[in-house]
Amino acid sequence: MKFCPRCGATDKDFYKGFCVDCYSKMNVFAETPKRLKITKCKDCGFWLYKNTWVEDSYQNLVKMLSEKVKTSLFEPKFDVDLKENTAILKISGFADERKKIPIHVEKEVVLTFDEKTCDSCLKFNAKNYEVKIQLRRSEPFDALKYKKLIDFIKRKIAYNQRSDERARAFWSEEKKEGIDFLFGFRQVGDSVLHEILNSFKVKHEMSPEFLGMDRDGKSKIRVTYCVRI
What we know:
Elements: E1 14-15, E2 18-19, H1 20-26, E3 30-31, E4 35-41, E5 47-49, E6 52-54, H2 58-66, E7 70-71, E8 74-83, E9 86-94, E10 102-116, H3 119-126, E11 131-136, H4 143-163, E12 170-174, E13 178-183, H5 186-199, E14 203-213, E15 219-228
């Protein structure tokens, strides 16, 4: 008769010579660090994750924690509960490749935060922009089309902010002649201009401004687009 050499049980499932309960107690299926340091923007609260600033969300916390886990479990899954600054990391999976022995492990990880300012907030706070889109009224003036274009730009910016943290470095300024939309990053501003030109029949002019050289020896250019509608 098969029996567990550790507890003597004979009426349980066995794995590698032991009952599954004893096998589970005898093995460490997952190891985690005791602490996880997260770099956090002191202005917007975003977290630095793989050189990109991301939203402080449950999903991103799970990603950060799960990548620090060393586990022998098959098909591991992760869940997190927060208790003040401590993350209760719940790890579930299987001890065996046939998925007959489910395992559940809980680990506590203390979260610490290192505060700095993200690139988008640095540009926003300093009002440092790379692209300006000037929306100006033309003659004859179509007030409805003008309003539609403003709403279109705002929607595009809001959409871009969901997937590109650089799009948060944006602000607008009301002028007597119209409205200016300012973008901290060239790629974001150029993308919005491209969307405008594809969706509206408008005239536009481009005016570049040379700002000098950066540390890598590349030219720093600020571009102003004047869009007339």
